């Protein structure tokens, strides 16, 4: 039987004989990540996963309830700033009380899940900006003025800074970063991964003072006063360490993205925008001018409401603008208005929006596109509410913390061990404030007795609480990132995102711990105070 001809070996008239080169063999890490992605994407739909997790939690909660599992510990009440002796016992979801909690609380659990409201409110403004064409024009303008090699660094740096606006980075920057990469002919998932790493894995530090800093500082001071009533730290207690972390991690995350993640993804073969590489048209340029004046108007409006002494958006009791104030608590509303006004202004200038009906339709379209995500968040909200009710996360945190406290380690090993414990528990207990309220009264006085500054303990907590946010299934926005990824890769799933983010998590965590250790050993100042 004659051998079948291979197309690679066929002579084409007028052309030299060609052979297809075999695809390059993937290295060890690339094979591992491909395996993680392949296995991860074979698991059921995330909604099914969380339904299964609810069943597991129900069974485990009853087991712990039957054996009488409980812990007694000191915690700091963030509202009263008092150290309280608290006892938490395992609560079963299969008792009469537990069943009533599950049945009667379904609607309330969903309403109490802040991520849902934040996403819907934010998309009202972003949807208008996107429909008008402002988002695309801004991306192309950014690509035109930013050096091509600096694009990743800019997006990662902005992602880290976005923590000043709480959840805005997840909702606005990450999809913009993916689109920006696509505009310059790069793989959009690489842009998504780099910005997600900046927003999530480095969430706990910034070069600016953000609302979370105020709460963490207050809890730290309450823990300090257990041992030293006259000693306190201020909001800038970790300023120098945070600045160094931001600079270092911007470089590290960008290098991981450019040298590892994007090469692994290969060239993007999906649909590309027709305007890729095109210059702005006169209409688009006029639209950007209108958007600029809309931006100025919004800034003036909020400046009048927030900047003068006694302004309505300042804290009515303390007069503070940063921290616990109406402005910071409602920052997502300000961002929504900013996108809504600038998007509408751009649409008028570029003639992409003709009237108010077009604006309303854009908002309706944005919310309608969230249907699948809202359903998934509904399931996740039930799981988080039921898991919190059982007290199992608190039991784990206290037990592991007690074990570490009594391990007899020295100051530096204990500090590193503390970071590791916080990181592991972040996978099941994502809230930065409740974890610190439990850990601070234990580890701040303990490490102070070992001559470790409380500023160092707070810095260690930031390191532990950051990186694993990017792969935690309980991160309220993890499902949203999967949804963003599916825009560019239809079969993307949980495994795709985990495989993308795992290199960031591992490297950032290791390098950040090394920075913490070096800072402590060298005795460098942690902050401005």
Automatic annotation (TrEMBL):
Pfam families: ABG_transport (PF03806). It comes from Corallococcus aberystwythensis. Keywords: Membrane, Transmembrane, Transmembrane helix. InterPro entries: AbgT. The chain crosses the membrane at residues 47-67, 115-139, 151-182, 189-209, 237-256, 290-307, 327-346, 367-389, 409-429, 436-452, 467-485, 497-522. GO terms for molecular function: secondary active p-aminobenzoyl-glutamate transmembrane transporter activity. Residues 17-26 have a biased composition (Basic residues). GO terms for biological process: p-aminobenzoyl-glutamate transmembrane transport. This is AbgT family transporter. Residues 1-27 are annotated as: Disordered.
